Amino acid sequence: MRQQRRLARAFALFLQAAAGLAFLGSLQGGSDTVLNGAPLGALMLGTALLFTHRQLRLAAPELSQAGERRGLPLLACAGLAFLYLIAPLNFAAEVTAICWALAGLATLIDRAFGIVVGQDRAREKRTLHNVLSGLLGKIADPAQRARRIVGIPTHIGPLDAKTRGDQLGKVTIIGARPGAGKTAFTTSILADAIERNDPTIHPMDPMLFFSLEMDDEELVARVMCAMAGIEYESMMYGPKPDAEMSRRLIWAADCINASPLEIDDETPRTVEQIAAEIYSWHRRVFSRRKTRGKVVIDYLTRIKRSPGIKNLQDHVMHCMAVLADVAKRTGLAIVVLSQLTRGHVKEGRMPEMDDLKGGGDIEENAFHVILLHPLGKAEDAAASRVWRGSVAALVEKNRSGP
Known about the structure:
Elements: H1 6-25, H2 37-58, H3 66-70, H4 72-90, H5 93-121, H6 128-140, H7 142-146, H8 157-163, E1 171-176, H9 182-196, E2 207-211, H10 216-228, H11 232-236, H12 243-258, E3 261-264, H13 271-285, E4 294-298, H14 312-330, E5 333-339, H15 343-347, E6 368-374, H16 377-382, E7 391-398
Parallel strand pairs: 1-5, 1-6, 2-3, 2-4, 4-5
Antiparallel strand pairs: 6-7
Helix pairs in contact: 1-2, 2-4, 4-5, 9-10, 10-12, 13-14
């Protein structure tokens, strides 16, 4: 399912159907045990069909085809029919009736479980009365009106004041030119969140980081450098770290190890495969608590193109549409890093949303669009100085404020 091999799935379904027809065509009565002859064939076919049904039912919508979803009732009925055949192949009529009654009860229990799972996964549909009641309650609530951050804070004061944090259930785009610091900007926010993590008083919100460019070791090293205030070159090369540097690095490592951070650096991946991993992580981490987490994808154009998508603009728009749907379904804050074209650099101006790589329509499904512009980089290069790393965060799109 996750590898999006549609031909392999179709062939597997064909094999199951052919095996079922061949089995029924050669079926004969007898008194074999369950592990011999016809009963064993019915058990294997029923198990295979029900397993296929379960995998398709639990798969993310982006990973299955409409025809496969329409065939779910047929798979369930066929799987149960083969399992129901086991009893008459082994027992007399009275015992067969008892077995079928027990099987019917088990089917009802499984159906009830499926309804509960479906209700848990689906976004609750509310009436207008409930929506208005909740909205008016928030308007009249003094505590709600006093809140300045309603999402997951970045702890960058001016940015949080404008965006009110990374909003839950929404997608935020962070765009910059290569080397302008978009990954460093994100890892510095991550390092600050890990440093503030206190599991007993103020725990860090769980985070899933898709690192499609760097491996997990390089990403963790960047976070450690940001937390310990040490340059990467000094940490990895040259003289061995002194006692103070070692102490800070061990402290940073302990903080990272205790944080609810997960890193996924597997590549290449389509956006459907990334969506499946997010759904799986969401079910595992938030099964018994309210959803309040964050997903970071570094970066957008490193995502592998899905089958049938030819050009970059269609690829980017498809990725954004899928990720916006995932954010809405799960309630997670999704932050996507993206590159900018060279247009604003050649024209000597500040970046705009039209400069996002893959077309200006990329922001259609974004709640916030933040563009990073390096300050003083050209001047430092002209003076043969190392760039000091200052960037301006331009909030080009902000649905939560001005």
